[in-house]
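Weekly puzzle thread! Below is a chain. First person to post its structure in token form gets bragging rights.
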Amino acid sequence: MRTRARLVLPAVQVAAAVALISSNRLRPQSLYRPTFLAPDRQFCWGLNAPATLAWHCLIKLSGGWPFGRFTIQFLLDTVVYFALVGLLWYVVSIEAGGKGLSVLAPRMGSRRVADVFGMAFGGAVAGMGLLMLRHEFGFVTPYSTFVAAPYFIWAAVIAGFYGHDLWACLRTRPVRPADSGGPC
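Winning reply:
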């Protein structure tokens, strides 16, 4: 049953992202109201904020590629974004099975470094939320606050989860060098 949930959750979230992005692509493009400001795209980005952050970094990196910028942009907007959404929710389904502690951090080699990296990633998602907060009009409006809220929720959950995992790692008894393995 657990394995099925690890596959169903990402599949459902990718299907939702495909539906929202497809709905957004059907909207007429306007200089006064670009489609990326439409609620369906904004909801998709907020629902998948960590994947949106990684996707946004890839978009910025692809800006200087000399070949087929529109082809690269389309691939990043569809295939890569949907793969990131699936990966995000697969990781969420794995971490949810850890009973409040990270399942993946101990497997990274150094649990403390992985937890600090997770907390820093949560901070980066909060930074993306700040950018979304001021994105549309250059000042904070009720709509921009609504759009930025999922980013801040994701940031708090990610930083809190990995912060709790780091705290749990540090409060355990230190492992003597002669012992093999250990929680941290």
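Puzzle host: Confirmed. Bonus trivia for everyone else. The chain has two domains: 1-97, 101-176.
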